Amino acid sequence: IMALASRSEIGKIWGIVFPITCFSALGFQHCIANMYTFSLATIMNCPGFSVGDGFINLAAATLGNILGAQLLAMTYWYVYMRHEGHDLYRNHHYGQNHRQAQWDHVGRAKKFDEFLHNHDPRHMIGGHAHQTTATYPILFGGADAPYMWWDARR
């Protein structure tokens, strides 16, 4: 998200590399990175490493990653989506077709995009908001992207 928020290439690179570097330097565990590390340690016959220790570490890291992802998702929901109510997926689960549920999600993205246009001072020139491409095309690849994907599956 930090990389998508920047408009310059250097800002995008900084927004990707810096958090990952900090994550690694602080010694946090990530299940996918650990799979690579443990496989490499097994292939290289590193002393002091056993498959059992790797499995225990991988199970703990995976559980931590799942809980951390849920906490992050709940935080984003609380900050951006709580005013929408608790029925985010109600239309899909209670019988309306999938296309209508997708329209609802695209509508929420458009509302969020309009909010960014109207409240971002960088876009305010001459007292009105200028048209930009804030998040909607980045997140969904354009208005028809979810529907093209859905129609291609049939």
From TrEMBL:
Keywords: Membrane, Transmembrane, Transmembrane helix. One of its GO terms (cellular component) is plasma membrane. The chain crosses the membrane at residues 12-36, 56-80. GO terms for biological process: nitrite transport. It is a multi-pass membrane protein. It is found in: Membrane. InterPro entries: Aquaporin-like, For/NO2_transpt. The keyword Cell membrane does not apply. Its main location: membrane. PANTHER family: FORMATE TRANSPORTER-RELATED (PTHR30520), FORMATE_NITRATE FAMILY TRANSPORTER (EUROFUNG) (PTHR30520:SF6). Belongs to the FNT transporter (TC 1.A.16) family. This is Formate/nitrite transporter. It comes from Eutreptiella gymnastica.
